[in-house]
Design goal:
Layout lengths: L1 E9 L3 H12 L4 E5 L16 E3 L4 H5 L6 H12 L7 H15 L2 H7 L28 E3 L3 H18 L3 E5 L1 E9 L2 E10 L14 E13 L8 H7 L2 H4 L7 E2 L8 H8 L4 E2 L4 E9 L9 E5 L5 E4 L15 H10 L4 E7 H7 L1 E2 L6 H4 L3 H8 L6 H9 L3 E4 L2 H11 L6 H13 L9 H10 L2 H7 L14 E13 L2 E2 L6 E3 L5 E7 L20 H16 L1
Parallel strand pairs: 1-2, 1-8, 2-5, 8-20, 9-17
Antiparallel strand pairs: 3-4, 6-7, 7-8, 10-18, 11-12, 11-17, 12-15, 13-14, 14-17, 16-17, 19-20
Helix pairs in contact: 1-6, 1-19, 3-4
């Protein structure tokens, strides 16, 4: 089975759809291929919370946030820590994205119909130094409609073009080889997989029923390696992060397998920064899983106490919502696969959110009434309460004695009640006056100074052992695989580079397959909202150049 197009896009996730929209505007004949069924159209972005990193927006200004390109660049470069010769293109991409995020990004997306929740989130608050990792201020713009709301304007344009015969969408097509010659890449070959009626995100079969070949320039938009734990472990930077845990949850579907990056490398493309990755430390086992080993991330406010598996309080900057990579490193270098939150119902009600469009039906459904009832009601949002009741990582108890007994039932490292109590009581004593040396309490009070946090994300400070704030809640937090920060090296037009540094004619890469731009525009750390933002930006670049 053979066909021809001006451009073949491998992957029907966000970056591939954005690239397709740009190609349609240029009048190009486009074929998109994907190994999954049509039910998974939209890829990983569908499951996302829909956050976008943007700079100096009306939403920020309405919340009294004074952002600037210079401050955002300081934060980005402090987080990235670019220190390699191969960081030339990633750094150029970082600069280009910052200019985009401070310039036309919001107006362009707004013109496409995208809207944002009025409260700007303050994600990844950093490690303590002005020129180090972290966001100095809130920049996480939550799209109204979450991940599906981000996809919607691009999906509508692609599906309309499909009906008009301008675009062809071919599902159950697994690319296994890029074809070409000394003059560049001229198409793809692969296997046709058997039809499968699984729902979105579920593991589909890999039964081969035929083969295919499509000629044309190629854009690789196939995602990263987060669903392939074998590749994650082989790329894991043991010296920098410690050994990978024996057990990890998967934060992305099974089909996010990273194999297309290997096929591109076999055709001469150059993957770089494969040891840079972004895995979360607040993973909980999904009680109602969609894909294998399915984990959900808790998006915590700043108040829960964080303990390692031995029951020792985590040191700053390993605080909830502050420095993800430092926390991952701390846990892994201790040789643990999990840690603990110890918190209260009062904190959980105000501060626990869950990642994913399916865990936020109010925001995903753009339902203001449901939003007010679920976020400002007597209990935590219903999806959080469901995890409290059904999740195997949650312990709920009226007393600390009962809580620790429950933690010891599900944990591998016995916890000492007296040791845990002494640390909690020490923290609680610091709330007795407006002064404190406890870094988390200082951070908590600063968070309450931001109107958005006070209103939506930060509980009034109180003693953990105050019975009126109860019941007590402990959460076992697992490592959750998620994002590749490295990828195929590209220039600023998303064109792939070979091992010699020369451009490869006919081959482009975007989204996570390109490390969201250039082969790793985050460097070592992400500031959040930059994954979807990078998919949009690099997909647009690829579609305008291919």
């Amino acid at each position: 089975m053979s066909s021809r197009a001006d451009v073949v896009i491998v992957g029907t996730g966000l970056s591939g759809l954005v690239a397709a929209c740009e190609l349609i505007e240029r009048g190009k004949r486009v074929i998109l291929v994907d190994q999954e069924p049509r039910a998974s159209l939209g890829g990983q972005a569908f499951w996302s919370l829909g956050g976008l990193f943007m700079i100096d927006t009306p939403e920020q200004r309405r919340m009294r946030i004074r952002d600037s390109l210079d401050l955002a660049r300081q934060d980005w470069l402090g987080a990235a820590g670019f220190d390699r010769a191969e960081d030339f293109w990633p750094r150029a991409w970082a600069d280009a994205y910052l200019n985009f995020a401070a310039g036309e990004m919001r107006s362009w997306l707004h013109g496409l119909g995208m809207r944002w929740f009025p409260v700007v989130g303050w994600a990844e608050r950093g490690g303590g130094l002005a020129d180090g990792h972290g966001n100095s201020l809130p920049r996480f713009h939550l799209t109204w409609g979450t991940g599906p709301g981000v996809l919607d304007p691009f999906l509508r344009r692609v599906l309309a073009a499909e009906r008009e015969g301008k675009v062809e969408l071919l599902f159950r097509r697994r690319v296994t080889r890029l074809i070409g010659d000394a003059n560049g890449i001229t198409g793809v070959e692969g296997e046709i997989l058997a039809e499968d009626g699984v729902s979105r995100g579920q593991q589909s079969n890999r039964d081969v029923v035929g083969d295919f070949r499509i000629e044309g320039a190629v854009i690789i938009a196939s995602g990263g390696i987060g669903g392939n734990q074998e590749l994650v472990r082989s790329a894991w930077p043991v010296e920098r992060l410690g050994a990978p845990p024996d057990q990890m949850l998967s934060g992305v579907p099974h089909h996010v397998d990273g194999l297309m990056i290997g096929h591109a490398e076999a055709a001469g493309a150059r993957p770089i920064n494969g040891d840079r990755m972004w895995h979360y430390t607040e993973g909980i086992t999904n009680w109602d899983p969609i894909w294998p080993n399915h984990g959900i991330r808790i998006l915590p406010g700043p108040s829960s106490l964080w303990f390692d598996a031995n029951g020792n309080r985590m040191p700053a900057p390993c605080l909830p919502g502050f420095d993800n990579l430092a926390t991952l490193q701390h846990i892994c270098k201790l040789g643990h696969s999990y840690s603990w939150f110890v918190t209260t119902q009062k904190i959980v009600k105000k501060e626990f959110a869950l990642s994913g469009s399916e865990q936020n039906p109010d925001l995903t459904g753009r339902d203001i009434g449901l939003l007010l009832r679920s976020r400002l009601g007597r209990l935590a949002p219903p999806p959080v309460e469901a995890f409290k009741a059904k999740g195997k990582d949650f312990i709920v108890a009226e007393t600390l004695e009962e809580l620790v007994a429950g933690m010891n039932r599900i944990g591998d490292h016995p916890l000492d009640l007296a040791h845990l109590r002494s640390q909690i009581e020490a923290r609680d004593r610091e709330l007795g006056n407006p002064f404190a040396k406890d870094a988390q309490i200082v951070a908590l009070r600063q968070a309450r100074g931001y109107l958005g946090d006070r209103f939506m994300r930060t509980a009034p400070p109180h003693r953990i052992l105050d019975a009126k704030a109860g019941p007590l809640i402990a959460v076992r937090l697992n490592i959750l695989t998620r994002k590749s920060l490295g990828g195929l090296e590209t220039d600023l037009n998303s064109q792939a580079l070979g091992r010699s540094g020369a451009l490869i004619p006919g081959l482009y890469a975007c989204g996570e397959a390109a490390g969201f731009g250039g082969g790793g525009y985050h460097g070592y750390n992400a500031l959040e909202g930059t994954f979807l933002g990078g998919c949009i930006f690099s997909g647009r670049k690829a579609g305008r150049a291919a």
